[in-house]
Every structure is written in C-alpha cells, then in structure tokens.
C-alpha cells in the first residue's frame, strides 16, 4: 500500500502527455522558403509600380501579402529584410524589348528587312522609395552616321522618389505623357508591325522629355502626371513629318521650357478594362544644341484625348490630337500652323480556348483593323501652300500571334493614300517582337 500511494503522488506532479491530434499535420514551410517567397513578392510589387496604368487593387493585395509574410518571418526570428543589406544584384532589375521587321512595298521604295530596334532596360532600387529607371535603344542595327538612319540613344533615364500614393516625384529623361503608345510602346502592347502613322508623325513616338515633375493617384480611379521640361527644337519641324524631328535627343536646350501632363480615368473601380485619358503639351520651340534665333517667338500647343476598352474577346482603342504652332511662318520649312490626326482600331482575340493547353497554354491570336488619318498641313500660314504629302489616310488589316505572353509574330497589309497625284504605295509587313 505505501508503494501505491508513493506512485500516485509521483504521477500527480509529472506533466501529462500531450493529447494526440488524430488529424494529419501539415509541416510549416522553412523560414528560407518564406524568405524566397518574400523576395518574389517584392519583385512583383516593384514591377507593378512601374506600370503607369497598373491595377491598384492587385498592387494593394500584393503589398498586404508582402507585409503578412514579413511579419511571419520576423515572428520566427528571421532577419528583417529592410534592416539587412541586400547585395547590389538584389537591387538591380534587367529587362528590355526589341522588334525585327520586313517591309514589302508595292512601288519604287524597295523591300527591306530592318533590325528596327533593341532596347535594354536597367533599373536600380536604392531604397524601396528611391528607384532609378533607364532604357538604352539601338535602332536599325547601327550607330548613326551621315549615310544611315540608325542610332544609339538614351530613351529614358530618370529617378523616382515614391513619397506617397498621391504625390511622388520624378527627375531626368522620361517619356512625354501624351497619346496611347508613347508611354507603352513595346511591340506586344500594340497591333500591327509598324506603329500607327498617327503615333509617328502627330505624336512622334518615342518622344522623350528632360525635366522634373510629380505623379500619383487623385483617388482609386484617377491618375495624373505633371512635368516641367525642355521644349522642342522648332527649327527641325517640317511639312511632312510635322514636329517629329524637333525632339531633342542630346544636349537639350532649355531656353524655352514646356509643360506637359495627363490625366487617366478608370470608370470601373479596381479594373483597367475601360480607360479614358486626356493629355497636353505646351511650350516654346526656340531650343536645340546649336545657336538659336533670338528673335524667334514661336511656341507649340498639343491637346489629345484617348480611350481604350476591352470587353469579352474584343479590344477597342482610339485617340485624337490637335497641335497649334504659333509663329509657324517665322520657322519656315513649310511648317503648318495646325496639325491634327486620329486613329480608331478594333481587335478580336480569335484563338479557340480549346487550343490553349500544353505548350500553347499562354498562347493568343488577335485579328485587327485600324484606320489612321494624319494631316501635318491642316492649316497653313497666309500665303504658304499646303504640301499634298502632308495629308495621309491609312487602313491597316492584320494578325498578331502570341506563342507566349511576351513574344509576338505579326503580319499586316496597309492601304495608304495621300493628296499627291500618285498617292502612296500599298505595303505588306511582317514582324517579330518581344519583351523580357
């Protein structure tokens, strides 16, 4: 009996065995795996912040997931990424895009194949809120010389200070925020082998400006940009290409400054399938690296409106722009007092869903039709006749095939005309483009 009492007393002070949960237990992921997932989320957040029409709801969701994962790592005693010192490779982002074209012209211009452009993107994150962005472009497969039209240029080079959702700051060389394609002109983002004539001669994509300004969200449905920058070089304006050659690409003169900005409105909250945009540009044109005419008082104003809408398998887009050049007579070169143009486009995704499996799981095919109207001689100074080559109409019919999301094969046929007696030759184009 004493022995039984002693055993009962000992059992009363020993800890009871833990109850066994009959359900199977899922092992928690290792901290190292969580940190790898955290790095992936950080990269997705950074990439989405670079997209000027990014889905704000998705961005907020990714940031919330990032914060939740960060707290779990810290609770386990893991290192806090913000307090650590990431290597320069962790802060670096590489990317780019390119396109190769073949143009077959029904006329004396001759057929050609063109390594049209290759662009290398390089970004660096000094801090989450201080980021460098740059793009270096090689056009037509060679460096510019007197006989050819190729070049190597710095298309973008700017630093963003992401101080808040409503107001952030940008300084450097950035894309002028006008039209549809100028800010988003990668070959996978538009239909057709060549960019629309409107986005070449009325809004001269790619059009960069050097300066500084602010950008942000007015609310969840409205985004804005506003910049003070170097103006154009009006001495390079002409009758047929309009303001295109007036873009400053080196040693940008700042005798005459310009102001540019845009406002984007997304009527449907947390969705980018419908967007309306308005943009403007205005400033003096007595700039450039060469000696300027001190008596020239010319200036230019540009106003543009655009819209994009996707519903079901259909995509629609359209854009209009009007330019007023005050002092065109002083510039000469048959420069017009007014330039305008527009295009409208309809496209349909035609690849059957049943085909999207296996290696074609991310494939797509798009058939489209577009009508361009460009008039770089819309209104002339008194006594100056309009150049008939300045008014053009282009109908483009084409097909784009995406073997995967970031690579596209293109083909189109263009019916082109102007006000000359012979008109413009029709053209068949083939192309391949990619983004990485």
What does this structure look like?
By secondary structure, the chain is mainly β. It has 2 domains: 31-82; 93-435, Beta Barrel (Porin), CATH 2.40.160. 15% of the residues lie in helices and 43% in strands. The protein has helices at residues 2-13, 31-50, 56-75, 88-91, 198-202, 328-331, and strands at 92-105, 112-127, 130-139, 151-161, 168-175, 208-219, 222-230, 257-265, 274-284, 299-311, 314-326, 338-349, 364-379, 391-404, 407-418, 427-435. The protein has a 16-stranded antiparallel barrel. A hairpin with an 8-residue loop joins strand 15 and strand 16. Helix 2 packs antiparallel against helix 3. It is globular and about 80 Å long. The relative contact order is 0.11.
CATH superfamily of the largest domain: Porin
Give the biggest beta sheet: 16 strands, antiparallel, barrel
Number of helices: 6
Low-confidence stretches at least 5 residues in length (pLDDT < 50)? 1-27
Morphology: globular
Helix content, binned percent: 10-25%
The tally of beta strands, per DSSP, is 16
Assembly status? single chain
Main sheet: strand order = 1-2-3-4-5-6-7-8-9-10-11-12-13-14-15-16
């Amino acid at each position: 009996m004493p022995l039984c009492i002693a055993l009962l007393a000992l059992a009363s002070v020993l800890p009871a065995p833990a109850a066994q949960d009959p359900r199977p237990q899922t092992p928690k992921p290792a901290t190292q795996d969580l940190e790898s997932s955290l790095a992936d989320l950080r990269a997705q957040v950074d990439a989405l912040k670079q997209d000027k029409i990014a889905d704000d709801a998705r961005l907020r969701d990714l940031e919330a997931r990032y914060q939740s994962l960060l707290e779990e790592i810290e609770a386990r005693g893991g290192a806090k990424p913000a307090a650590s010192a990431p290597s320069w490779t962790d802060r670096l982002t590489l990317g780019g895009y390119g396109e190769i074209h073949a143009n077959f012209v029904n006329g004396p211009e001759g057929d050609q194949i063109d390594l049209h452009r290759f662009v290398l993107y390089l970004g660096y994150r000094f801090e989450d809120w201080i980021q460098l962005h740059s793009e270096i472009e090689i056009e037509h497969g060679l460096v510019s010389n007197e006989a050819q039209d190729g070049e190597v240029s710095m298309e973008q080079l700017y630093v963003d200070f992401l101080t808040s959702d409503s107001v952030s700051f940008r300084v450097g060389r950035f894309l002028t925020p006008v039209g549809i394609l100028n800010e988003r002109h990668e070959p996978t983002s538009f239909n057709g082998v060549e960019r629309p004539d409107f986005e070449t001669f009325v809004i001269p994509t790619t059009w960069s400006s050097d300066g500084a300004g602010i950008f942000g969200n007015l609310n969840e449905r409205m985004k804005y940009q506003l910049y003070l920058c170097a103006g154009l070089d009006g001495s390079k304006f002409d009758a047929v290409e309009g303001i295109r050659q007036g873009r400053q690409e080196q040693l940008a003169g700042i005798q005459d400054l310009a102001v540019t900005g845009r406002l984007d409105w997304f009527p449907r909250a947390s969705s980018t399938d419908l967007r309306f945009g308005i943009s403007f540009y205005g400033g003096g044109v007595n700039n450039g690296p060469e000696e300027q005419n001190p008596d020239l008082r010319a200036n230019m104003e540009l106003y543009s409106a655009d819209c994009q809408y996707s519903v079901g398998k259909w995509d629609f887009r359209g854009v209009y722009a009007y330019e007023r050049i005050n002092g065109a007579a002083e510039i000469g070169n048959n420069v017009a007092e007014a330039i305008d143009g527009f295009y409208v486009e309809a496209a349909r995704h035609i690849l059957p869903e049943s085909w999207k499996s296996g290696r074609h799981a991310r494939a797509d095919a798009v058939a489209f039709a577009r009508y361009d109207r460009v008039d770089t001689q819309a209104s002339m100074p008194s006594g100056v006749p309009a150049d008939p080559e300045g008014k053009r109409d282009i109908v483009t019919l084409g097909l784009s095939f995406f073997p995967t999301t970031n690579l596209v094969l293109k083909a189109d046929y263009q019916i082109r005309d102007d006000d000359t007696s012979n008109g413009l030759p029709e053209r068949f184009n083939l192309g391949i483009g990619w983004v990485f």
